[in-house]
Design a protein that fits this description.
The protein has three helices and two strands; from the N terminus they run H-E-H-H-E. It is an alpha+beta fold.
Length: 89
Amino acid sequence: MLILPGRSLALTADAADRECAAVEEAVLAHRRSEWHRYGDLPPVTASIGVASGNVAGEGFAHLVAEADEALYRAKRAGRNQVSLVRDAA
């Protein structure tokens, strides 16, 4: 879980997209390296759910639950992607 106070939904989504790409690139780099000869990594991807809102208004637990639902939506949609919850602020 990452908590990024003061960031808009768009900025947080951009950060999450970069994280997904970084995971994918790390796996590809491993497969291109000499470490690959010691065994292949299983398929590894990142699915990320993002929620944004006002903690004081909605409560931290509510925002975490929304992000969790978005995470599972990303997994159901094929994984290796970011799913957003509307900006609740």
